[in-house]
Design goal:
about 700 residues, globular, disordered N terminus
Length: about 700
């Protein structure tokens, strides 16, 4: 029985990011343990044996930062740059430029304990707000294409939120915090383990008045986890649900408008009489059943269901139409693992998912959107999607200190599309809307009913060389694929001939990592080539056959100067360039992609003032980046400093606070060059503010 009750603790340790432990004494005590990660192979694996990168954020780091937005925690990993929009909105970069639209939704895979937050063809460009990152047990990020275990959307990378494991003994905690512009957060958790059963219930709610006038949001999240540990069978059941109700300010417009105090707090949507909003709900339920067949083989089966609904005003488009979308999925992950003699391992698996989705886009009849934007229904369609993906993953101990990793995934995707409105184009003439086919250009195009299928093959080959007991080097090749997003295929704008195909990226990386005592680090260099890149250029024209190159160097390091002081540094140097010319746009071979900074960095100086007190000063660096395809407009970058403090008053009470933007820097969370007409647009970074709170355990 004692062995069974220790299992939740062992799983919790698997999620801990030891190189970035909160207290120096914790880092020292954990330094002799092998670091474990779960995302690469869907089960615990020593990090030193992983052929490729995996960045990790620990439970302790999450509790120190107490993030108000997901970018405050995931941007601590090299190669990751999540730009905050308004409220809980965001755009993501992982070994890529910051991507928007279908490219931004479809290039990154977001997971909770290995289960995708959304179906592959129905991704949400703001999908991270559907994760309970505030109460996660850890976060793992794989930069570049995922392994054979992950298919569509794991093109540029994946983020896996690990649920917090049940506690060994009864744990109850209430957490209350307050911040600027009427920001209030309430969190609570209860957890325990009795015999073979462990559980944890975590809930949180946030209300935020918003930095801009009449902005803000209310959001609630709940996560319930139950673990059962038997002699032969174990089960992990997770239920997660989120609700978001948000008022969404728009971009502020004009060169360096973020330096104008009045403009920086304004809400252009309100000033134009527009109430931009986003209402979104989601829930997921999964049960992972693992059966130990014998000493050398294990079978794992994970059925799951999910549902999402979202209704929002597309204030960033001409006319500000309303979109409603939803999808429901059932899925099944299966894997059979064989541990062979000599340290070899083979995993056979199949992923299956079936989804029913729908989307509508409607221009309000009561508004006057102006020339070029027709009123009424733009799109109304349903899509049934089927994904079947068998794979094999193998690890071979070819020499005493040399490990070969090879994998292959085949993914079949089928979309059954049903148009609920008139087929064909809505064409726009010089005076507004013309008859179908009779205007100057096809503003919207609605394909007829049909079926589309895509077949993609993703190989992976890696080699890990043990250099010393705590240091290893690796080289890794991987191919990432993704079937087009359903919006890429069935919500076509401005270019009816731009039919999307499967996007493919080939990646090669080489790296070295060191764990253990003293200096710990990981250095990785990569080069990737992407083709059939479907995106919308600066002039709002769909491009369906883009080619790009991505080259970079990522450095993550941690060094404890003493028991009191330590430093963590994450730096990224990257070039993201077009690899083609296009005569009808501003794209030229060798130009930088939009929103692709050459350097990003996050350096943190930690001070353990006492055994109960931790302070951390964080420097966030963003270099300049181009805002248009012609590389003529740019954002100059910024440097922002943040301070975090946590003090354990006694065994029950903890006080904490964060002072963000210590030097009151004027900067933009996101800079853009777009709109009608083209102009500089910004989401403003908040001025200096204090956020503080307390947690009480009983």
């Amino acid at each position: 029985m004692l062995k069974v009750k220790k299992l939740p603790l062992l799983i919790a340790l698997a999620a801990v990011n030891t190189p970035y432990a909160v207290f120096a004494e914790e880092a020292e005590s954990a330094a002799s343990l092998d670091e474990l990660v779960v995302t690469g192979t869907r089960s615990e694996s020593p990090l030193l044996e992983v052929a490729g990168n995996t960045g990790r954020i620990s439970e302790e780091e999450i509790d120190l930062v107490r993030p108000d937005h997901v970018n405050q925690i995931v941007n601590r990993i090299p190669g990751v740059n999540v730009q905050r929009g308004n409220g809980q909105e965001h755009l993501t970069s992982i070994r890529s430029p910051v991507l928007s639209g279908g490219a931004g939704a479809g290039s990154f895979l977001y997971l909770e304990d290995g289960i995708p937050l959304r179906a592959a063809g129905f991704a949400n460009v703001n999908g991270l707000f559907e994760a309970n990152y505030e109460q996660a047990g850890g976060v793992e990020v794989v930069r570049g294409p995922g392994s054979a275990f992950y298919g569509s959307n794991a093109v540029h990378g994946l983020i896996n939120f690990l649920t917090r494991a049940p506690s060994l003994d009864l744990e109850r905690e209430i957490d209350v915090s307050v911040g600027p512009h009427d920001l209030y957060k309430l969190k609570g958790t209860i957890s325990d383990t009795e015999g073979r059963h462990g559980y944890r219930l975590s809930v949180n709610g946030t209300t935020d008045g918003g930095y801009a006038e009449d902005g803000g949001y209310d959001q609630q999240k709940v996560t319930f986890r139950h673990d059962y540990y038997g002699d032969q069978d174990s089960f992990k059941t997770i239920f997660s649900a989120t609700n978001l109700n948000q008022n969404t300010p728009g971009y502020i417009v004009g060169f360096k408008a973020y330096e104008d105090e009045r403009l920086s707090r304004s809400n252009p949507n309100r000033d134009r009489g527009i109430r931009a909003y986003r209402d979104a709900q989601s829930y997921r339920l999964s049960t992972e059943w693992e059966r130990q067949l014998d000493d050398n083989s294990t079978f794992r089966l994970t059925p799951y269901i999910r549902h999402t609904d979202m209704d929002f005003l597309m204030h960033f488009l001409p006319g500000q139409p309303t979109e409603k979308n939803s999808h429901s999925s059932v899925g099944l992950l299966s894997a059979l693992t064989y541990d062979l003699n000599g340290g070899h391992k083979v995993i056979f698996g199949t992923d299956f998912e079936y989804t029913e989705g729908e989307l509508s886009e409607v221009q309000d009849q009561e508004t006057n959107p102006g020339p070029g934007v027709p009123q009424g229904v733009h799109y109304d369609y349903e899509v049934d999607a089927t994904v079947i993906a068998p794979y094999i993953h193998s690890e071979w101990q070819v020499l005493e200190k040399t490990r070969l990793v090879a994998g292959l995934r085949y993914e079949y995707t089928k979309y059954d599309y049903n148009n609920q409105t008139t087929d064909g184009a809505i064409s726009v003439g010089a005076d507004g809307v013309g008859p179908n086919g009779g205007g100057e250009f096809d503003r919207y195009f609605r394909p007829a009913d049909g079926k589309d299928t895509f077949s993609n093959l993703s190989p992976k080959l890696g080699l890990v060389q043990e250099l010393t007991e705590d240091t290893s080097a690796f080289i890794n090749y991987a191919r990432g694929n993704r079937a087009p997003q359903t919006t890429d295929l069935y919500r076509i704008q401005n270019n009816a001939g731009a039919s999307a195909d499967s996007e493919t990226i080939d990646s090669i990386e080489i790296g070295i990592r060191k764990l253990g005592e003293g200096l710990q680090y990981e250095v990785a260099a990569y080069h990737m080539k992407k083709r059939d890149y479907f995106f919308t250029d600066t002039n709002d024209i769909n491009v369906n056959d883009g080619k790009t190159n991505h080259t970079g160097l990522e450095i993550g390091a941690f060094y404890p100067f003493s028991a009191q002081f330590d430093i963590a540094a994450n730096m990224t140097f990257a070039k993201h360039e077009y690899d083609f010319d296009r005569a009808d746009t501003d794209i030229e071979n060798g130009n930088y992609l939009v929103t692709a900074p050459k350097r990003t960095g996050n350096i943190r100086l930690g001070w353990n003032a006492t055994s109960q007190t931790r302070a951390e000063l964080e420097w966030v660096h963003m270099s300049e980046y181009y805002l248009n395809d012609a590389n003529t407009e740019k954002y100059e970058g910024h440097d922002v400093f943040n301070l975090y403090v946590s003090h354990q008053v006694n065994s029950n009470l903890k006080l904490y606070g964060q002072l963000r933007n210590v030097f009151n820097t004027e900067y933009a969370e996101r800079a853009d060059f777009g709109g009608f007409p083209l102009n500089y647009r910004y989401f403003v970074g908040e001025k200096r503010y204090l956020h503080f709170g307390a947690s009480y355990a009983f």
